[in-house]
Amino acid sequence: MGRSVLVTGGNRGIGLAIARDLAAQGHQVAVTHRGSGAPEGLFGVQADVTDLEQVDAAFAQVEAHQGPVEVLVSNAGLTDDTLLMRMSEDQFERVLNANLTGAFRVAKRASRGMLRGKWGRFVFISSVVGLSGSAGQANYAASKAGLVGFARSLARELGSRNITANVVAPGFVHTDMTDTLPEDRKKEILGAVPAGRYAEPGEIAAAVRYLASDEAGYVNGAVLPVDGGLGLGH
Ligand code: NDP
């Protein structure tokens, strides 16, 4: 059965791969963008997840187009890396605001419809570094770790209503976010990944596809690493 899906940051990178994958499964898929427009074949709504009014307006548009959101993939995220000694409070809060509070804004808005419909799937895109930590990414790693506690709280609050909240923790994936890393850092990363390569965005999408499915109804509060073995149990 096709579900009403919203993927935040689904205009490019991992989010776009997730959106295309879910659309190929027969779901009705909407994506948020911040002005780039909708990718071909997908329904796009403009929203910055740091702005509650924009989030609310985007949900209203999605609801009018395809009904209440039944599957929310909270994927929008950014980095602003520097060592702790140099990190300003503003840099810390900006990343937390987008990656963690942004997830709260969209999840809270989506929960209404899920509760009414007595079915829902939350999938939060975290990161291996949320669990392992990462030098130069205290803000980003904290935001990604926060998603785990957040999702598990939703699992406890909403688990009796046929609503699940799970986390996917990717390792390093070929996208704009990782393309900008310095070459020596890329080499260092590849040396630490048992798979010896980066992931392709479609490999993250495959994990999301499962967690969003009917069959995953008994999987709740899980953190699924898709990291080529980089985290190994963290
Ligand atoms: P990209 O930089 O390629 O894309 C980021 C997406 O998030 C874009 O769609 C961007 O929109 C959107 N976005 C950023 N900030 C906001 C905001 N405030 N409001 C709405 N949308 C926003 O990143 P990836 O595809 O690589 O990353 C996607 C997710 O996966 C992120 O949460 C990231 O942290 C996570 N991740 C990525 C890994 C990697 O190796 N690439 C590894 C582990 C996790 P816009 O186009 O408007 O900028």
From TrEMBL:
InterPro entries noted in UniProt: KR_dom (IPR057326), NAD(P)-bd_dom_sf (IPR036291), Sc_DH/Rdtase_CS (IPR020904), SDR (IPR050259), SDR_fam (IPR002347)
This protein's UniProt keywords: Oxidoreductase
GO biological process: monocarboxylic acid metabolic process
Domain (Ketoreductase) ranges: 3-192
UniProt GO molecular function: 3-oxoacyl-[acyl-carrier-protein] reductase (NADPH) activity
Documented EC number(s): 1.1.1.100
SUPFAM superfamilies reported in the protein's UniProt record: NAD(P)-binding Rossmann-fold domains
Positions of transmembrane segments: none
Keyword DNA-binding: no
A Pfam short name: adh_short_C2
Similarity section: Belongs to the short-chain dehydrogenases/reductases (SDR) family.
Protein name: 3-oxoacyl-[acyl-carrier protein] reductase
